Amino acid sequence: GGGLASGSVQGQGRPLSDGAYDEFEGLLRTITLGRKKIQECMGFALDYADCFGDVVELLEGSLLVKETPVNVKLARLYLVSDLLHNSSAPVRGATMYRTKLEECLPKVFDHLNATLRNPNLGRMTAGNLEDKVLDLLDVWCGWSIYPANFLHGLEASFLRRNADLESDHLAIIKGVTGDGSSLDLEDLRRQARRCGVYFDAKASKGESEDALKLLKKIALVEVYERAKVMADSSQTDAPRGTALLAQCMASLLGPTA
Questions:
Q1: Fewest Cβ atoms nearer than 10 Å: which of 10, 33, 234, 240?
Q2: Is a pLDDT exceeding 50 seen at residue 8?
Q3: Helix, strand, coil shares of the chain as percentages rounded to 5?
Q4: Per-residue pLDDT tens for 25-73?
Q5: 221: enclosing H helix or E strand
Q6: How many helices (H) and strands (E) does the chain have?
Q7: How many CB atoms lie within 10 A of CB 179?
């Protein structure tokens, strides 16, 4: 246990007491997809909404544990959804949940991508995870809780396949050839924040490989978002998720792909 180091009260809220910290840690550890368990966690989060910084930090940390079973990851993601839905509650600090979660969601969805693309994950489990996460993102789009571009970026980041970033076509459509040494990493990071793409802010600046990889991730979001908007407006049963991403990458690579 032990309270987390807290920044300014305005940016981080009050620190959780040791007892409350341990209590929430325990609630997150035992959470299941059962509605009652998620509601218990939600009740705690609203009771301690003025400690929003520590609450979100604990929730984020629990979502990034590699070994966590898929159902537990989903339960914690549903708690995120409940927090977003209740961020307009007339409780001191509740509105800050929306802001703090926006800061950590790109990293969470980048982690969920590693889970989805883990070769040891069974096909049915992967399909179930993909369907549940896409359904949740559709709900968030309906709430207009964040800009559509940000949510589409989370979705593209979640679905991204390892081979997608190996293609030079994603750099070429952004007008970039070569090793990316001329790219402005800070500008790319600003773009990434807006479109829900995760990057390691602590990584050393000026590394051309990092800049080129980030550019490709941003380009992938743009390609996927265009395809998703077209699919959503289509009257036919358009593909979604991995199938839609595969389709737009294939069209990008051309008939030789």
A1: 10
A2: no
A3: 65, 0, 35
A4: 999 999 999 999 999 999 999 999 999 999 999 999 999 999 999 999 9
A5: helix 208-233
A6: 12, 0
A7: 12
> And the tokens for 93?
């600090």
Question: In this predicted model, what pLDDT tens digit does every residue of 77-133 receive, in sequence order?
Answer: 999 999 999 998 888 889 999 999 999 999 999 999 999 999 999 999 999 999 999
Q: How much is the pLDDT for 12?
A: 86
Residue 90: both structure tokens together: 């007339």
* Residue 82 CA neighbour count, 13 Å, CB half: 20
Q: Name 210's Cβ contacts closer than 8 Å, sequence gap at least 6.
A: 185, 199, 203
Helix (H) or strand (E) holding 107: helix 94-116
- Residues 224, 167 contacting (CB under 8 angstroms): no
Helix (H, G, I), strand (E, B) or coil at 237: coil
Q: Locate 85 and state its tokens.
A: 């839905």
Alpha carbons 4 and 200: distance in angstroms, whole number: 21
- Nearby residues of 37 by Cβ (< 8 Å), 6 or more positions away: 27, 30, 31, 75
Residue with tokens 């008939």: 255
pLDDT grade for 4, boundaries at 50, 70 and 90: very low
Cα gap 251→257, rounded to integer Å: 8
